Model the fold of this input.
Amino acid sequence: MGQRKQILQASRTAAKAGMAASMATLVYTGFRGRKAMGLHTWAGMALLGFTLWHVYLYQPKSKAATRRHAQQKLVKPKTGAPAVPSPES
Done:
């Protein structure tokens, strides 16, 4: 595996770990009541930040890659997917 792919994989793992830790903190502070309201707020903002980072790490880097990805989705329909009814029927 190339160095860039290793860095990307490590970043994805870190983003997922951050999301899990902030979610666990949210659940814990949610049961603590008013005593933990400040920490609960910061944990929620951290979850949003980790989620945005996670989404960013899975986006194609170029327009050509985005186009290729869209074409692959059009060419390869899912097997066993229900048929979409036509608008005339």
Summary: Residues 23 and 47 are 7 Å apart (CA to CA). The longest helix spans residues 3-30.
